Amino acid sequence: MLTYRDAQPADAAGMAQILRDIIALTGRMRASDAAYCLATYIENPASVCCTVAIDGAEQVVGFQSLTIAGPDSAYGTPEGWGAIGTHVSPDAHGQGVGRALFACTLAAARHAGVTQIDASIGADNPEGQAYYAAMGFQTWQTANGRVQKVYRVAQ
Predict the structure, then answer these.
(1) For 51-93, how does the pLDDT look when each residue is reduced to its tens digit (9 = 90+)?
(2) Distance between alpha carbon 113 and the CA centroid of its chain, in Å?
(3) Entry's InterPro entries (predicted)?
């Protein structure tokens, strides 16, 4: 049975392991150490939420973050929009982890008054694009090897 809760500093190592597992599977390089996860996902001052999925062995099997984009967004996300990131262990794919994480994130977005959420996905990541489409995101921009999808939050 999986549980979902706000990420805590002690989760950073498990989150980093998920990123490394994804890198091993896909070859898509990215920062993947615990310090990065702590700073970028858990303690980011622009964070709306960061939710982790925890399995019965108390291991992190997925996480999703939502931040508010600033004026210098790395992906060109409009300032004030939410920017989402979803990372699920390859061992947990197909178990509804991403859908449950998004339900938590969507509730936090509504509570924070976020009206639009941007997902910036690599053009070479059809699985990620399909996930966000299944959650109701629609493509709004394609540039620089990325597909950007937007979710319009009903308040």
Answers:
(1) 999 999 999 999 999 999 999 998 889 999 999 999 999 999 9
(2) 18
(3) Acyl_CoA_acyltransferase, Bact_Acetyltransf, GNAT_dom
Planar angle of CA 30, 33, 36, nearest 5 degrees: 80
Predicted confidence (pLDDT) per residue in 25-61, tens digit:
887 777 788 999 999 999 999 999 999 999 999 999 9
**Which domains, from first to last, does the chain contain?**
3-152 (3.40.630.30)
Strands of the sheet containing 116-122, edge to edge, are: 3-6, 47-54, 60-68, 82-88, 116-122, 146-152, 138-143
Sorted by sequence, the CB contacts under 8 Å of residue 129 that are 6+ apart come out as 121, 147, 149
Q: Which segments of the chain does DSSP mark as H helices, in order?
A: 12-26, 34-37, 97-112, 126-134
Give the pTM.
Answer: 0.94
